[in-house]
From TrEMBL:
UniProt key word Flavoprotein: yes
UniProt EC number: 1.5.99.12
Protein name as catalogued: cytokinin dehydrogenase
Keyword Flavoprotein among UniProt keywords: yes
Organism name: Arabidopsis suecica (Swedish thale-cress)
UniProt-listed GO biological process terms: cytokinin metabolic process
Length: 506
């Protein structure tokens, strides 16, 4: 009997030592064999940081975090996860600036991609090879030293190259140069099977197109070859106010249609709501109360935001663009303001806001953001139904609302990223970037649901960006005609469904 007990105890100890997955007091422990030569951090502060994201809405606890020193580390990890006796899932994590746990993995391994950061500009300065954990702000700093820069940007630069390429990467240059995923020449990817593959439009194209906008489902990007062009020195940055939505969108659309002509380099738009916080700081102090009064008077004011980059302010094109903006647009007379800033300060403008919010303790709050693409033909219906009938009727609104058009032909439909499946040339990018408190979060989330419901009931064929669905049928609807291809790619590159489970797709 004593012998039997001893044998049982020994077996139990052996199982604990050699299984990849063990649970004790509800905490999942992962065992990585020494031969992998990887350090798995389980320090409570590291686990706690990896359990949360920018959204501050979900908590998902991983079993451990690795900080890879090379892509070979990730390959060994995934090879082991895919072929070991029992499996654990793996999520690449950039800055964790996702909204609903998309970069998380319950009980699995987080790969801290920020450990891999490096930028090498090619000799001809036409591209840079960038390690996927590099922040865009560092890509800028390194490439600008050589007088070059990427051609398309997100509004915020403190996010990683791999994280943004897994989503799409959109901002005010999309109408001209496309989303970030359209400006990539080549990738190194480690698939869910642990294979290390280089891919491009010519080489392993199925993986290349799959990974771009692929929500981390097919592989972990370790290197991206990013298109570069001349880095301008400065930007003339304008904001103009409109009280009429149709006039505002007509001017926006006219400006993006001039992209191949003299045009502006950047175009976005904001919405000021009288029940929200109105940031008038872009306007001279003497005009700020007039702007606030205008919003109160009209309820909604639309802000056209554009920038023209330049090196030499004396070039005739600069005055031509300024003339077009100041003389031919139909903004409210007198309500125009211009800042002349360095190109870097322009690109890094959201960090100024981040610093302000951090100092007020308003950065690390819940962010029930809703990002949408809306076809141009229904933008007025969206405006009336959502901006006027839903948002303006809330007791209060907090955060930023963005609304600007872009050109569909800047997306490559072979990539995984989704935009509305209509044949319209122009689509609108909408960002309802709200901040909440733990108390009013449920209310704000139900407003977002109301918006989605309104679009559905009105037949507005939106697509969400940075979305988080928990029901398979929503994913199938999201990917529409691409769903079959998307799931086939999953079977091909990550058959054990190990990667980025926080997206809740498979
Ligand atoms: P994470 O949130 O860490 O990861 C995102 C997803 O990609 C996860 O599923 C993760 O598993 C996966 N992933 C991460 N790295 C890799 C990799 N190397 N290989 C494969 N999969 C990977 N987005 C825009 O497009 N335009 C904007 O203007 C914009 N502005 C923003 C402003 C702010 C203040 C914030 C917080 C976010 C903004 N975003 C914007 C959203 C941003 O693109 C996402 O947060 C995105 O997820 C990138 O963040 P990240 O690098 O932290 O990636």
């Amino acid at each position: 009997m004593a012998n039997l007990r001893l044998i049982i105890t020994l077996i139990t100890v052996l199982i604990c030592l050699f299984s990849s997955f063990t649970k004790s007091s509800n905490v999942i422990k992962i065992y990585l064999p020494k031969s992998l030569n990887l350090t798995l951090s389980t320090d409570p502060s590291i686990i706690s940081a990896a359990s949360h994201d920018f959204g501050n809405i979900t908590t998902v606890t991983p079993g451990g975090v690795i900080c890879p020193s090379s892509s070979a580390d990730i390959s060994r990890l995934l090879h082991y996860a895919a072929n070991g006796k029992s499996t654990f899932q793996v999520a690449a994590r950039g800055q964790g600036h996702s909204l609903n746990g998309q970069a998380s993995v319950s009980g699995g391994v987080i790969v801290n991609m920020t450990c891999l950061n490096d930028v090498v500009v090619s000799k001809d300065k036409k591209y840079a090879d960038v390690a996927a954990g590099t922040l865009w702000v560092d890509v800028f700093k390194k490439t600008a030293e050589e007088g070059v820069s990427p051609v398309s940007w997100t509004d915020y630069l403190h996010i990683t190259v791999g994280g943004t390429l897994s989503n799409g990467g959109i901002g005010g240059q999309v109408f001209r140069n496309g989303p970030l995923i359209s400006n990539v020449l080549e990738l190194d990817v480690i698939t869910g099977k642990g294979e290390v593959l280089t891919c491009s439009r010519q080489l392993n194209p199925e993986l290349f197109y799959g990974v771009l906008g692929g929500l981390g489902q097919f592989g972990i990007i370790t290197r991206a070859r990013i298109v570069l062009d001349h880095a301008p020195k400065r930007a003339k940055w304008f904001r103009m106010l409109y009280s009429d939505f149709t006039t505002f969108t007509k001017d926006q659309e006219r400006l993006i249609s001039m992209a191949n002509d003299i045009g502006v380099d950047y175009l976005e738009g904001q919405i000021f709501l009288s029940n929200g916080v109105i940031d008038t700081s872009f306007f001279p102090p003497s005009d700020q109360s007039k702007v606030a009064d205008l919003v109160k008077e009209h309820g909604v004011i639309y802000v056209l935001e554009v920038a023209k980059y330049y090196d030499d302010p004396n070039l005739p094109i600069i005055s031509k663009v300024i003339d077009t903006l100041t003389k031919s647009l139909s903004y409210l007379p007198g309500f125009i303001s211009m800042h002349d800033v360095s190109y870097f300060d322009f690109l890094n403008r959201v960090q100024v806001e981040e610093n302000k919010l951090r100092s007020l303790g308003l950065w690390e709050v819940p962010h029930p953001w809703l990002n949408l693409y809306v076809p141009k033909s229904r933008i007025l219906d969206f405006h009336n139904g959502v901006i006027k009938d839903i948002l303006l009727k809330q007791k209060s609104a907090s955060g930023l609302a963005l609304l600007y058009p872009t050109n569909r032909n800047k997306w490559d439909n072979r990539m995984s990223a989704m935009i509305p499946e209509t044949d319209e040339d122009v689509i609108y990018i909408i960002g309802l970037l709200q901040s909440a408190t733990p108390q009013n979060l449920p209310e704000m989330e139900s407003v977002n649901e109301e918006i989605i419901r309104f679009c559905k009931d009105s037949g507005i064929k939106i697509k969400q960006y940075l979305m988080h669905y928990t029901r398979k049928e929503d994913w199938i609807e999201h990917f529409g005609s691409k769903w079959d291809g998307f799931s086939k790619r999953k079977d091909l590159f990550d058959p054990k469904k190990l990667l980025s489970p926080g997206q809740d797709i498979f």
